[in-house]
Amino acid sequence: MSPGLLFLAAISLYPTLYSLVVSFMRWNLSSGEAARFAGLDNFVGLLTDGLFWNSVRVTLVFVFFSVLIELVLTFGLALLFFRGFPGDKLLRALIMMPMLCAPVVVGLLARFSLEPTYGIVNQLMRSIGLPTTEFLGNVDLALPTLIAIDVWQWSPFLFLILLAAMQGLPEEVIEASKIDGASWPRIIWHQFLPLLRYPILVGVLLRLIDSFRVYDIVYMTTRGGPVDATSTMSWQIYDVGFRAFNISYAAAFSWLLLLLVLLAVNSLIRRMVARS
Amino acid sequence: MSVAKRRNINWNVGVRASVAVISTFLFIAPVLWMVTTAFKTGNQAFSGEIQWFFTPTLENFAEVLGGTRLTYALINSLQVSVISSIVAILLASGIAYPLARYEFRGRDQIAGTILSLRIVPPIVTIIPLFLVMRTIGLNGSLLSIIILHVFMNLPLAVWLLRGFYEDVPKEIEEAGAIDGLGNIGIFFRMVLPLAMPGVASTALLCFVFSWNEFLFASVLSNAGSQTVTVALTQYVTPVGTEWTLIMAAGTVVAVPVWLAALAAQKYLVRGLSLGAVK
């Protein structure tokens, strides 16, 4: 048993069990009352809590659209790059810049860019005659705006994975289909997609895992608002646990989040582990 | 190849290159705007019109780095990221090397379980860990943040290092064994030097993730142990926001990561995809 395994076991097993225990208690750090056993109260409470279901909906919408848009966008972008052209390496290095920024920095940058009076987005929109828009303060626009920010920051990540995978494809495959007179859409559909299934799977899996935890950007831009329009599960749990200090409710909440993530990625991760 | 066909290919490359340049610009434009704003005075930034050409000023950087808050946080972040990366690499090597080298029962289960730790959203682990840190009195200390960053980076490091250690040819180790080296000697004197580029870039990736991390650091830090990402949140105040200063601070936080990524570029894709795409 190596020290690393001991450390991992200690820091993952114990808190996991601890949080399970806490989720069955009634425990609010701000009330000063001692924690006591509450059975299934927290879970029953959550399932009848409108804020909980709102956060589930917000999270699923956010995850689904951001990952879908990123996948389609970056597949096209990778196709553009994979045969190479002068200067492609430089562009590839530049494209990485957004994903290397801390999400907190991206959140600040988004606030500044979307600012109504001197933010660059609104300045550009005005210059082509569009009205000034409060992207982050509008109930209908806030979530799509967060999705756009995520797409901007994390598309480079999927792009790099897909590009590396495409460049690893055997040249014969492409040559052979060309000689057969296949058109590009056919080659992409019948040759590329099947051969790239595994890298796409890994890329999508990693993006899914990461987008379920979206928190930093919400913290820096909308703080869950306006009117809970961007209150993702991670944000809502933080709000319950560290602002209302309802620790046990937040623990139960986080178990339901974990369950949702596992449901979403379980089949993908099993396939990935089987391949490695 | 006929002239017509060649011209067709050139045209093709030209179109692809142009679309690629435009796409790249869309990705870096906000970053460029952040960096240029950092070099502007307030009047230049808030004139209401986009100023493409201006005389750059270093005032914002001087103010951001001259004040104690961000400088202090930078030192904290440097400590947290460097120490947690080194510890993560050491602990992960102890797991990854046996996983790469020896056949034993349950090997794949261990690897799978370690990977699955990466699935758990941090908000799920932070509640119990916050309570534990409070109980043992580590709350608000740099040590508590370091411990959590080691925890955060271990699965990634194990998964990557395993790949890099597997790439070291077995024959070299057998030669070492014949020369009378023990397992530990073989690892430190033969495997580690050969796997060094991979190990170093794994360390750089751990550094990047730790440097950029926010949730653990914000929940566990206090005024004295703020990391840079936490310190940045304090720049946005309800009373007027000094965007030129904030953009300078954002740039200062982003630059070390850009440098680290540049150094690890060759292994970046492999690292980010957990070695799945080599």
Topology:
The complex is a heterodimer of chains A (276) and B (278).
Chain A: H1 3-23, E1 25-26, E2 36-37, H2 41-47, H3 50-82, H4 88-95, H5 97-100, H6 103-114, H7 120-127, H8 142-167, H9 171-179, H10 184-195, H11 197-212, H12 216-221, H13 233-243, H14 247-275
Chain B: H1 3-38, H2 42-45, H3 59-66, H4 68-101, H5 107-116, H6 122-135, H7 142-166, H8 170-178, H9 183-212, H10 215-220, H11 228-233, H12 243-263, H13 265-272
Helix pairs in contact in B: 1-12, 3-12, 4-7, 4-9, 5-7, 7-9, 8-9, 9-12, 9-13
What report would you give on this structure?
- The complex is a heterodimer of chains A (276) and B (278).
- Chain A is 73% helix and 1% strand.
- Chain A has helices at 3-23, 41-47, 50-82, 88-95, 97-100, 103-114, 120-127, 142-167, 171-179, 184-195, 197-212, 216-221, 233-243, 247-275, and strands at 25-26, 36-37.
- The two termini of chain A are 23 Å apart.
- In chain B, helix 9 packs antiparallel against helix 12.
- Chain B is built from 13 helices and no strands.
- The radius of gyration of chain B is 24 Å and the shape is flat.
- At the A-B interface, helix 1, helix 3, helix 4, helix 5 and helix 6 of A face helix 1, helix 4, helix 5, helix 6 and helix 7 of B.
